[in-house]
What we know:
The chain has helices at 2-24, 98-106, 140-149, and strands at residues 29-33, 38-43, 46-52, 74-82, 90-93, 116-119, 136-138, 154-159. It contains 3 helices and 8 strands; from the N terminus they run αβββββαββαβ.
Amino acid sequence: MTARLAALFCLVALAAATAAAREETQADRVLVDKSDRQLHLMRNGAIWKSYPIGLGFAPEGHKRQEGDGRTPEGDYVLDWRNPNSRFHLSIHISYPDAGDRADAARRSVSPGGAIFIHGHHRRWFGQKRDWTLGCIAVTDAAMDEIWRAVPDGTPITIRP
């Protein structure tokens, strides 16, 4: 019985250590500053890591409809990921939310969608700063780090 108790104690200690290590390597929020062209991984209210970004080809203002080339502004959630993205890896931003859909409906337009944080497609890398259709682009190396550090369900705030 003592050996079993010792083994159980070791498993509990290992699980606690793994959870603590995961907490130290994961963001609890993402903050995007469009004007500074920076994506910040946040932990406990402080910036933990930062990355330069590219935005939609018409980056000024909040995304209002499909095809406008704008990157959304506001509070969303990073809700799922695509490991087979054409743009290296990608994490989906929950745009459009109910308010975005209602605004678009009032204007009889589509709000658009498929907004992601993603790596650079090889043919675009280094050619243009703001080139996406509304997504947030980072280098492939940055996307690898973000992919590991940002779990599904992480809140994201995108500021003008």
